[in-house]
Sequence to fold (173 residues):
Amino acid sequence: MTESNAAQAPVIELRHVDKHYGDLHVLKDINLKVNKGEVVVIIGPSGSGKSTMCRTINRLETVDSGEILIEGKPLPQEGKELAQMRAELGMVFQGFNLFAHKTILENVTLGPIEVLGMKKDEAEKKAMELLARVGVAEQAQKVPAQLSGGQQQRVAIARSLAMDPKAMLFDEP
Fold:
């Protein structure tokens, strides 16, 4: 695929995706295209597969059949390519998954430093800008337990944005 074709490909595409948990058919022939700049909201009752769909897009769950593409390329199965793809897809989990023993600032800078190889001072500057953007910069030296649930969610959003993702996935925003 040429670069111009990749630029035109949907950022996320699901083609005939199926997922079962035993006899439970959670995702049934799901087809979805999300283009750059688009905001897509999936709504449905508890247990309808919304979280499972997010998790399959990020390859935290495998699909039984069908195909998931990121910018026109199939999801990598494992290894460095999968880690690279995950770094390019921001995910904000329902439980936020912040590191309890690290400060808010450390939570936001960890990925850029360890995964992207960013210098600590540069990562901290960017993190503080993002924390300010989501309204929790004054909480930077606290640990997650000292913040409300809403503040923790905003930190999780800043943490994902710090990785400059191609797309953001939110589970129960």
